[in-house]
Amino acid sequence: MIKQLKIDTRLLHGQVALMWCGVLDVDAILVANDEVVNNELMKLGMKMAKPSHVGIAIRTVENGIALLNNPASHKTK
């Protein structure tokens, strides 16, 4: 279930990682960005920025859409 959709060039940053994850009680973050998916340094930074109890998926835009449409991910908040 999508709790919040945010379009932001800053991708994952403190406000999203700390405030919104707690307020919305999410258990996963999806970052859909065609450039970041191939940048190991940026991916590492985003993995470090997320709360420890929250999963993260970093995908291309196309694969991110597929992930959201996958019935297996519908239980994920």
Polypeptide structure, described:
This protein is α+β, with helices and mostly antiparallel strands and 77 residues long. The protein contains three helices and two strands, in the order αβαβα. It has helices at 14-24, 40-49, 61-69; strands at 28-32, 55-59. Strands 1-2 form a two-stranded parallel sheet. Strand 1, helix 2 and strand 2 form a beta-alpha-beta unit. The chain starts with 13 loop residues before the first helix and ends in an 8-residue tail after the last helix.
Q: What is the topology?
A:
Layout: H1 14-24, E1 28-32, H2 40-49, E2 55-59, H3 61-69
Parallel strand pairs: 1-2
Strand arrangement in the largest pleated sheet? 1-2
Strand content: 5-15%
User: Which stretches are low in confidence, meaning pLDDT under 50 for 5 or more residues running?
Assistant: none
SSE string: HEHEH
How far is the first residue's CA from the last residue's CA?
Answer: 5 Å
On the 0 to 100 scale, the average pLDDT is 88
How many helices does DSSP assign? 3
* Rg computed from alpha carbons, rounded to a whole number of angstroms: 12 Å
How helix-rich are the residues, as a percent range? 25-40%
Q: State the secondary-structure class.
A: alpha+beta
Number of strands: 2
- Shape verdict: globular
Most strands sheet: 2 strands, parallel
